[in-house]
Design goal:
By secondary structure, the protein is α+β, with helices and mostly antiparallel strands. The protein folds into three domains: 13-83, Nucleic acid-binding proteins (OB fold (Dihydrolipoamide Acetyltransferase, E2P)); 87-169, DNA polymerase, domain 1, CATH 1.10.150.190; 175-259, Alpha-Beta Plaits (2-Layer Sandwich), CATH 3.30.70. The protein is built from seven helices and ten strands. The strands form two sheets. It has a five-stranded mixed β-barrel. Helix 3 (135-144) packs across helix 4 (146-152). It starts with 12 loop residues before the first strand and ends with a strand.
């Protein structure tokens, strides 16, 4: 994986390959940092008692570790295996696999531009990683909004190549969240005001959809589709706030129940 820094940061999750296992700990190579070796002391292998360290790690195994400390002057990187939970492990492996794919996609971009790969990193690749954190995230950003991506990079000649490769090789993830609205409005034109309030919160944007489904008086299902949960929650909150404000103006009421899972 191409990195713009030489060493990981304290607290960072890293993917590593076990190089050598000793009774006192394990030496690993960091997959994302070329030539960098880390060490897992036996006390950091498991939260339980470790009788045989090879019951937990073995040579050639790929693992996810948390960086405890880094000493660049000595080249020391201390790692922990026990401080990584299953959720963190799953997310990091997914990120690592995506970044491996992004490296292949970047090679295609370089080929399409008829330039060598190091030159492309110098010209724009390193800047993409610095801005978006990950190369894969840059491809996703180009795919989500091509026009914004072009403006962000001043219509650079390589932008279309990045977009085209992303379009042909990446399928954006979509998350769905929903909840139930209970709405009342007892004015003579209450039904019209409710319909208008619900219509106003519906959206169909490039990467976000907000929809309302009629369940039965006075209940309406609110459904939000977005590329990630954070974005989805922001749009859901805005929709609930807007419909609540609209009903308040006509002396109506709105209660919202978030459906989990």
């Amino acid at each position: 994986m191409h990195k713009t820094s030489d060493f990981p940061e304290d607290g960072e999750m890293v993917v590593a390959t076990v190089k050598l296992v000793k009774n006192f700990g394990a030496f690993v190579m960091l997959d994302e940092y070329t030539g960098k070796e880390g060490f897992i002391h036996i006390s950091e292998v498991s939260s339980g008692w470790v009788k045989y360290i090879r019951d937990f790690v073995r040579e050639g195994q790929k693992i996810v570790c948390k960086v405890l400390s880094v000493d660049p002057s000595k080249g020391h990187i201390d790692l922990s295996l026990k401080k990584v939970n299953e959720h963190q492990k799953r997310d990091k492996i997914k990120e690592w696999k995506n970044e491996q794919k992004a490296l292949k996609l970047f090679e295609i971009v370089a080929r399409d531009l008829k330039k060598d790969i190091p030159a492309c990193y110098t010209e724009f690749g390193d800047d993409l990683i610095e801005k978006y954190g990950l190369l894969y995230a840059a491809f996703e950003e180009a795919l989500v909004s091509k026009e914004n991506f072009k403006k962000e990079w001043d219509e650079a000649p390589w932008v279309d190549a990045v977009y085209n490769v992303a379009k042909d090789n990446i399928v954006l993830a979509v998350v769905t969240i929903q909840g139930m609205l209970e709405i009342t409005c007892f004015t003579p034109d209450g039904a019209i005001k409710i319909s208008r309030a619900l219509t106003d919160i519906e959206k169909e944007e490039e990467d976000v959809s907000v929809a309302v489904q009629y369940v039965g008086p006075p209940r309406y299902r609110l459904i939000v589709l977005a590329p990630d949960y954070k974005t989805a929650e922001v749009y859901m909150k805005a929709a609930v706030d807007n419909v609540t404000a609209a009903l308040h103006k006509c002396k109506g009421s709105c209660t919202f129940t978030r459906k989990e899972g």
